[in-house]
Amino acid sequence: MKRPETRIIHTRGARLGTVTVNPPVERASTVLFKTEKALYDSKPGYGRMGLSVHRELEAALSELEGGSHVRLTSNGLQACVLAIASCVKSGGHILIPDSAYGPTARFCERRLKYMGVSATRYDPRIGAGIVDLIRPETQAIFMESPGSLTFEVSDIPAITAVAREHGVTTIADNTWGAGYFHKPLALGADIVVQAMTKYIVGHADAFGGAVMTSDDRLYNRIAMASEDFGISLAPDDAYLCLRGMRTLHTRLRAHEAAALDLAAWLAERPEVSEVLHPALPSSPDHTLWKRDFTGSSGLFGVVLNAIPEGGMDRFLGALHLFGMGFSWGGYESLLIPCDHQLTRSKDSWTATRAGPLLRIHVGLEAVSDLKAELDSAFAALKGPA
Questions:
Q1: Would 151 disulfide with which of 146, 302, 366, 369, CB 3.0-4.6 Å?
Q2: Biological process GO terms, please (predicted)?
């Protein structure tokens, strides 16, 4: 059995004509056929359904996540929405973690309400205790591990075991683990989703999402929902996603090493109250992370101690290597303040924080340069000597 990084590089989809290292990019809406039978029997029969590069990307994603079926979407949020919408119907109920990606939670709490589906948030560390939140009408449990912004690790095997006992479908957002460091399908999840925009693309120059499963019945529901919504992924974006997959292993290992180095350095800083990174031994989730993950990515959180007035503006103004912008997973480092987008169903998490919450994505720069810049930014935060 070849190693995963080898299999991902050498996975090829079925092609016609000349065999090349990379698949052709067919920018086509219309596919032409010779006969009426071929017109109506062929799959795909229309460019929106994907052509050569899409099939090859699907094959590589199946290898990566260990699923037998893949449905591509135009971005990560759309992947989450597609998976959720395929599992719930009017009168139903869904459970979502309190640490879910904000737009995913928004869809469940705003849009699903108009569709007659209610949503309840749960503590991402609830584990098997989620049984107490399952109702007769509960149809799905959404998981995201680690959670967005605060990076709690969920006990996916415990949650999925309870869900199976009650006939509830489970969906896991695996963007942080990128399908390489974490395998939710192997841990019991029914469906896994990824924002390919992040690590799979890896260069901050394209969008993409994917929904994966090994369950034929669930895949049929996902495929029908995708067709009903008219979801598709542009061929050039599919190509960039596939290109990124071929170097995923090398880039992730570099992100992992740099992020662990920087996280450990930050944990010793007097300006820092807490580093939110499950791979650090100091993390309350470290044991669970060590059991269910084979590595860690470049994204983590930092809680600062109380800062003086105007300190955050001075801190951010001193950053040049760290860009301030949404998304992550590319080759450049990013740092954003998160208090404006942090929402929790209760005030327990936010009330106990010492100071502002930051999210850091460590890119592929030299870690020594990143440390030097943060050292200067911390000095600026304190104000004039």
A1: 146
A2: L-cysteine catabolic process to pyruvate; transsulfuration
